[in-house]
Amino acid sequence: MDGANQTQVTEFVFLGFSRVLQGQAFLFLAFLAIYLITLLGNCLILTLIVLDPQLHSPMYFFLGHLSILDMCYSSITLPKILINFVHQQETISYRECMAQMFFLMTCAGTECALLTVMAFDRYAAICKPLHYTLIMSKKVCVPLATACWLWGILDSAMHTSLATDVSFCGDNQIHHIFCDVPPLLKIACSDTYINEMALHAASVFVGLIPFLLILISYLYILLAILRVHSNTGRHKAFSTCAAHLVVVIMYFGMGFLNYNRPSAGYSLEVDTLVSTLYCILTPMLNPLIYSLRNQDVKGALRRALGHHEKDDTSPRAQPGVD
Q1: Buried-state track 244-262, b at ≥16 Cβ within 10 A, e below 16
Q2: E strand or H helix at 173, and its extent?
Q3: What is the mean pLDDT of residues 190-219?
């Protein structure tokens, strides 16, 4: 591939907010508020997990990694959007675009793998309670979390490497609000067949297979919950999964809409809305979902604020379960 062709386009122009001529000040304040809430919410969850001994369990170990991912997600996209609002110029350099795409896809691949591991953790806690501490020991949890990050990095490195071999020699207008593989391939002036095949393969191995594994885990969890005779026991078992299940449905649902919408009837406004929900609002909502649905997190917050509770000295029915 001729290197000159690759560097002909030195910057890209985002068209996602190009039709919003009025109200950009409102959008700036809205996105700034979302970014601050995302950082504060996830920092709070992470701080509670680190400082509160009652949250030192596998479930919250992985939740801490999810909070780090959510902060990374927002920090990859929102600062550039805010800067462009201030400068009133929706541009990004070629190198910044490639970097943004690399880190964004790293987070996407890592989160798919991490949500799968969190589903397995819930399966082990509810379906294999007597072996839970052995199955999800520290020697297992740390390599699992490391593997999730490496999985995301390797997937992203493949797509980014392929994208740098693509020529952009004319059109530099990206129909999106940040740099991602599909909108970049649409404006390429060289053959993108290999890139598209890599995207299809990734949608199976990074998206579909993890989602199916999560469904299988929850099928076994549901069967285990149905075997519980008391309503209290069922509610207790289900409450440990509810927040994670909501996050899974929201994340994979938005991801499917973001990457698998038909090109027929394409709308820039709809694309901008879906991308905002997927990469900007979801990281903000995750800590809210976990804090509102989780008694352990709410208890840790009360203890951190100085509202001491009577210690619960009774043993838990299942390790790591609410």
Answers
A1: bbbbbebbbebbbbbbeee
A2: strand 173-174
A3: 92
Which domains, and CATH codes, for the chain? 7-304 (1.20.1070.10)
**What amino acid occupies position 83?**
I
Residue 35 three-state SS: helix
Q: How far apart are CA 166 and CA 164, in angstroms?
A: 5
Name the token pair of 104.
């964004």
pLDDT, tens digit (0-9, with 9 covering 90-100), for 54-102: 889 999 999 999 999 999 989 999 999 999 888 878 889 999 999 999 9
Cα gap 262→275, rounded to integer Å: 15
- Sheet strand arrangement including 173-174: 91-93, 11-14, 173-174
* Tokens representing residue 207 in the block: 């998206």
Q: Is 11 helix (H, G, I), strand (E, B) or coil?
A: strand
Residue whose entry in the numeric block shows the structure tokens 């649409």: 186
